[in-house]
Design a protein that fits this description.
The protein has about 475 residues and is an alpha/beta fold. Helix content is about 40%, strand content about 10%. Among the domains are: about 240 residues, Phosphoglycerate mutase-like (Rossmann fold, 3-Layer(aba) Sandwich); about 90 residues, no CATH class. The protein contains 17 helices and 10 strands. GO terms for molecular function: phosphatase activity.
């Protein structure tokens, strides 16, 4: 019965969207399977490569291919047009390689027929690697003075590292009644799993205080270490409990409804999403695809800000390897070379999958406590702007920072009495975050302001990465669990 109902609902949904045109998408994607953080530098595994590659293939089958189920208007189906893509990732082996692997699935080699050219002298030259397509992955530049952006080598990927107020907020979780209760009540549980990780972590380190680090080591080992799988300690129940506690710990650090500054990673991501979608809308789909590979902390923080935990408890957990969330711009209006929909004719849908899209296709969920999964573009912009932080001035003010990059920002902000004037100056300054989302912050009319794409300065994945000692075997004490990148 349930299967028949699901099939009926699926058919009705397909019918309802039959006349929709996809104008563009923004995809925020997590990396694939990797080695454990306990042994830096982390590396993308072959399994992880496969996960992101097949995810790219799925997105190709939906949006890019000539026979795509929901083709993006005017997208090049076979040979990539770099002008149609904006792809970014942090300076990090795992994230950069995941992005590259995803793109290979999105635009695969074109073969000898398309991947060849005839020279003036009549010689035919075939592209190497069967027409392998070279697609650059741009670097997400940090607005912090720190040059350390090796995010996947850090135990905690909170994008608020370097944001003073966010650090204070996240640290307050570590003294909260909720945290202390769980820390004490799980002490015996972590003592029971300590022998499994005692070659890497001390018993003092193996507590709820370091829930994600402990989970990460065991999780990775359970995939790649056959010896560990023979451990009588690591039952399915134990593995599930380790994940549950890691999720609780990380969400507590990433979001708090009464202290939204804690979710600075989600706020900066929201600004980037708005910026790229705004470029698509105002540029009439000239750049219809935005892709960024980033950290799980940005997923968690955004989930909280967008009120997604109210939809499902699944949105309070760490997104799995190769997970993705997609923001899809659609319209029911007629679109042609001479006709493009107005802002009030455009809708936005949010889709999410907690693993590679090739395994579990993304599903639409309602944002901001709304009942519908498809929102008017203007409503989407209004709701996102309630928590989006996209300029260096905004970030410095929200974080309470006045040194480093914020020292010059503080001076500059005194001469900019409005957001619009700050946005206008940012287009020629080349300074920090001030170039990210001026075209979408504030009143909707400012959406007509488009910033250049070539030097976008984005924040997801870390404004500064704060390195932290690890509790390896023989360590005298466990490292603290303050906010880390």
């Amino acid at each position: 019965m349930f299967a028949k109902q699901a099939l009926l609902l699926s058919s009705l949904a397909a019918l309802a969207h039959a006349h929709e045109t996809v104008l563009g998408v923004y995809i925020f994607h997590r990396h694939g399977d990797r080695t454990a953080k306990a042994f830096p530098p982390t590396e993308l595994t072959d399994l992880g490569y496969q996960q992101v590659y097949t995810s790219g293939e799925w997105f190709r089958s939906k949006y890019i291919d000539a026979n795509a189920t929901s083709p993006i208007i005017n997208i090049s189906p076979n040979i990539v047009k770099l002008s149609q893509l904006s792809v970014e990732a942090a300076v990090d082996n795992v994230l950069q390689n995941s992005a590259a692997g995803f793109l290979q699935g999105l635009y695969p080699p074109v073969g000898a027929t398309l991947g060849a050219e005839t020279l003036a002298n009549g010689t035919t030259v075939e592209s190497p690697l069967s027409g392998f397509q070279l697609i650059p992955v741009n670097v997400v530049t940090s607005a912090s003075a720190s040059s350390d952006t090796s995010t996947e080598d850090s135990a905690w990927l909170q994008g608020s590292s370097g944001c003073n107020n966010a650090v204070l907020s996240s640290n307050s979780y570590l003294t909260s009644a909720e945290y202390l209760k769980t820390l004490n009540s799980t002490a015996s549980f972590y003592n029971s799993v300590a022998p499994v990780v005692n070659n890497t972590f001390t018993s003092a380190y193996t507590t709820f205080k370091n829930a994600y680090s402990v989970y990460d080591l065991i999780h990775v080992s359970s995939i790649h270490n056959t010896t560990l799988q023979d451990s009588a300690v690591l039952t399915n129940e134990t593995l599930s409990q380790l994940l549950t506690l890691a999720n609780q710990h990380e969400f507590g650090l990433a979001y708090n409804s009464s202290e939204t500054i804690r979710a600075i990673a989600g706020s900066t991501l929201a600004a980037q999403i708005l910026q790229q979608l705004n470029v698509t809308v105002t540029g009439e789909s000239a750049v219809p695809v935005g892709i960024q590979f980033g950290a799980y902390s940005s997923f968690l923080s955004f989930f909280g800000l967008a009120q997604l935990p109210e939809v499902s408890d699944d949105f309070t957990g760490v997104a799995g390897y190769a997970s993705s969330m997609t923001f899809e711009l659609t319209t029911n209006a007629t679109v042609s070379n001479t006709s493009y929909p107005t802002a009030d004719q455009i809708n936005v849908s949010f889709l999410f999958t907690n693993s590679s899209a090739a395994i579990n296709p993304p599903v639409a969920y309602p944002l901001f406590g709304q009942s519908e999964t498809s929102l008017p573009w203007t409503t989407f912009v209004t709701e996102m702007n309630k928590f989006a932080i996209g300029t260096q001035t905004q970030w410095c003010n929200a974080c309470g920072n006045s040194t480093g990059v914020c020292a010059t920002t503080a001076d500059a902000s005194s001469s900019n009495s409005s957001l619009s004037s700050a946005s206008a100056s940012s287009s020629s300054s080349g300074g920090g975050m001030s170039r990210t989302v001026a075209g979408v912050i504030g009143a909707f009319v400012t959406l007509v302001v488009i910033l250049g794409l070539e030097a976008l300065v984005l924040l997801v994945g870390g404004l500064r990465i704060a390195k932290k000692n690890r509790g390896g075997a023989g360590a005298n004490s466990a490292p603290t669990s303050d906010v880390k990148a």
